[in-house]
Design brief:
This protein is of the alpha/beta class. The protein has 14 helices and 13 strands. The strands form three sheets. A seven-stranded mixed beta sheet has the order 3-9-8-7-6-4-5, with helices on both faces. Strands 1-2-11 form a three-stranded mixed beta sheet.
Length: 403
């Protein structure tokens, strides 16, 4: 064994001791409520495919047609010769849907965060993050070399204290005044609660800061036209940068930024994860455009209403089974367990009972706050929810203490 493998082996053993080692599971079926995992059929309550679009025939047909017309690969970055028509059409559709001047797509949500934050912020600027934002945003803030400040989750008093401090602290190396960027998610991916966007907008306006909101878990689910929490709270025009993903409720893959034309023009020039990446497959852009159109249609509203009906049914089932729930307003229902080992054991027993609800552990969540992250989709049936209730009740009774 060479020195690299020996060292990595020791590190993996350390993860084993902390009950933090992860492995990939084999899924042999499409993304849907009934999935085949390791040769066994399980009811899947762990997917972010909230509207059930990942296997929708309209998206599948658009993908196939796009592959027939444009092939499987873009061939180059979009600034070279990879800017194929499906990418432009998707961004036009996204801007229309989000009611912004422009939009820009990236290969992944992670690449969206890294490219956008690092293009906007640098040394002498200040980035202020909610403690529970996604890892991609934290990594982007660190890579930008801006000064980083964290406020406790949804704590507007601490955010204001940071903003007040920033007024005299933001200075570029050349002496110019730096910028301040506040970043939050609208729906938090592990806790399932919402950001107080009205308060955030009021504070960023008062202190002349920029506001970036990640609508990854909100697009397609909130607002009259299903544009997200920003629309639902009537804050969209006052949010400087709207970020989102194409891989959750939209059922495809990729990320996007929606905002002003000037913002998009700057990102085209300075977002390194955009400039230096081969463009995503054009067929994927075709499927994503079909997804945006579907979400904006009457069928999108029907699926959204069905989703919320299923969410209410699952909440009732969880509470009836004896599991406490925080006051979430999303399809993400955290079932708190605590110790990492205990969460793994609960997940394993549920899998033995026929359910896929993986344990979420550090570093995704803080140490000692491991949980089952139960997610609901419009594709779940009442019968599957009833079966879940029985399994959760049995599991709750089997626990030696409160979760």
């Amino acid at each position: 064994m060479n020195s690299l493998d020996a060292e990595l082996g020791r590190r993996l053993e350390d993860l084993d001791r902390q009950v933090l080692r992860r492995t990939l599971r084999s899924v042999e079926s499409p993304q849907q409520p009934l999935m085949t995992v390791g040769g066994r059929q399980l009811i899947n309550f762990s997917s972010n495919d909230y509207l059930g679009l990942a296997s929708h025939p309209r998206l599948r047909d658009a993908l196939i047609e796009g592959a027939h017309r444009f092939g499987t690969g873009a061939g180059a970055s979009r600034l070279i010769c990879g800017n194929l028509e499906p990418h432009r059409e998707l961004e036009t559709e996204l801007a229309r849907f989000k009611q912004t001047e422009a939009a820009l797509t990236f290969s992944t949500g992670y690449a969206t965060a890294l490219g956008t934050v690092c293009a906007l912020m640098s040394q002498g600027d200040i980035i202020i993050l909610d403690r529970l934002v996604h890892a991609s945003i934290i990594d982007a803030a660190r890579l930008s070399k801006a000064t980083l400040r964290i406020f406790a989750h949804n704590d507007m008093e601490q955010l204001e204290a940071h903003l007040s401090w920033s007024q005299t602290a933001r200075r570029k190396p050349d002496g110019a005044q730096g910028q301040v960027l506040v970043i939050t998610e609208s729906v938090f991916s592990m806790d399932g609660d919402l950001a107080p966007l009205r308060n955030l907008v009021e504070l960023k306006e008062r202190y002349d800061a920029w506001l970036m909101v990640d609508e990854a878990h909100a697009t397609g689910l909130y607002g009259t036209h299903r544009r997200g929490v920003a629309e639902a709270m009537e804050m969209s025009p006052l949010i400087d940068i709207q970020m989102g993903t194409l891989g959750k409720a939209l059922g495809v893959a990729g990320g996007y930024v929606a905002g002003s034309q000037v913002l998009v023009d700057w990102l085209v020039n300075r977002a390194r994860s955009f400039v230096f990446s081969t463009a995503p497959p054009p067929a994927v852009a075709c499927a994503a455009r079909a997804a945006v159109r579907l979400v904006a249609s009457e069928e999108g509203e029907r699926l959204r209403q069905l989703l919320w009906a299923r969410v209410n049914q699952v909440k009732e089932a969880v509470l009836a089974a004896g599991w406490p729930l925080p006051p979430v307003q999303s399809p993400i229902l955290p079932l708190f367990v605590g110790p990492e080992a205990a969460a793994l054991e609960v997940a394993a027993r549920l899998q033995a009972a026929g359910f896929l609800i993986p344990a979420i552990r550090y570093p995704t969540v803080p140490k000692g706050e491991a949980r089952l992250r139960l997610t609901v989709t419009a594709a779940h049936s009442p019968e599957q929810i009833s079966e879940l209730s029985v399994a959760l009740r049995h599991e709750r009774l089997s626990l030696s203490g409160p979760p």
